[in-house]
Amino acid sequence: MGRGIRPGIVRYLDTPPTAPELDIILQQRAPEPRQSMRRKEPERKRLTLDNADLRRRQLIATMVANPRLTERPIV
Hints:
Blueprint: H1 19-29, H2 42-46, H3 56-65
């Protein structure tokens, strides 16, 4: 890759990040966890993740438990 930087590849479906790791990633990427969730993933609707009463911690825990919800790639 350019500038001699080689990205690390994490297969997050095999080894999802922990809640603290995902929280740090999301803080760098988007302030709101919902902004980093895939909109058309069936789990999002089934788990009613558009519920405004859900707190950040709850959303992150749900993303850790259901890694397919995470919009990818994360660079």
